[in-house]
């Protein structure tokens, strides 16, 4: 999710380099593929756009702090006993071509034989973005669902939020769907998920609604009080702040325990502050050692 001016600049650079994913992708190294068993949630693979890939206004094209906003890091910190780090395939230029970027991510995810896939913002740009007509949005949303259909492992996918407060800043008016279109997309997602028992829907819409209104928010029995949630989003009103990333990680874990049932409560660190601290401590160590902190993303052959 990027501002209109930043997206225009990124699009120009992307075309010039002829590979948008390369501009934003983390350094990729070859890693062995570990087949998941029926009882295993690993490897955990993250797909989606900039909210999952990590984004901060001061580093619109990535930088040393961007990795601290990467959702996969918070998912790793939320797991008490993990065999391997989550693999993030999420990319910030997803908005440039959701159909192509989404297909590439699903193709790559399937190559990894995932145990679990998390796509908190995977469907966002299948509803948002520029279209010739509002009536074109439902068809594009179906394209996103068709891509997710290929995943047979447990999947956590976010629904579509109302991001209208970001219009005029991170979003242009032309990219904003009608509220009726968003509501219809979420009804369609609920209907689709009901016929796919491997899919759990995370309410990204409720998270953002509470943050925008500074209302109380409850995740897995933990409540953040009224007046304490607006800071969970960055000032762009679109991307999660670091504490917001920690809470979204808890929401994912809640979906994996309560809906997908691939994890049990004792396997999860249910403390957002501790998750935040773990990610911060790791980032501080990386800053001192110069390791950069990017978890390996298996390269395509």
Short key terms for the protein model shown above:
single chain; 301 residues; alpha/beta; Rossmann fold; five-stranded parallel sheet; two-stranded parallel sheet; 10 helices; 40% helix; 9% strand; globular
Topology:
Elements: H1 4-17, H2 20-24, E1 28-29, E2 44-46, H3 50-53, H4 71-78, E3 87-88, H5 98-111, E4 116-119, H6 137-148, E5 155-158, H7 179-194, E6 199-202, H8 204-213, E7 217-219, E8 222-224, H9 242-259, H10 272-289, E9 297-298
Parallel strand pairs: 1-9, 2-3, 2-4, 4-5, 5-6
Antiparallel strand pairs: 7-8
Give a verbal description of the structure.
- With 301 residues, the protein is α/β, with parallel strands linked by helices.
- The chain has a single domain (4-24, 40-294), classed as SGNH hydrolase (Rossmann fold, 3-Layer(aba) Sandwich).
- It is built from 10 helices and 9 strands.
- The protein has helices at 4-17, 20-24, 50-53, 71-78, 98-111, 137-148, 179-194, 204-213, 242-259, 272-289; strands at residues 28-29, 44-46, 87-88, 116-119, 155-158, 199-202, 217-219, 222-224, 297-298.
- It has a 5-stranded parallel beta sheet, with helices on both faces. Strands 1-9 form a two-stranded parallel sheet. Strands 7-8 form a two-stranded antiparallel ribbon.
- Helix 6 links the parallel strand 4 (116-119) and strand 5 (155-158).
- Helix 5 runs parallel beside helix 6, helix 6 runs parallel beside helix 7 (179-194) and helix 9 crosses helix 10.
- The longest helix is centred in the last third of the chain and has 18 residues, at 242-259.
- It is globular.
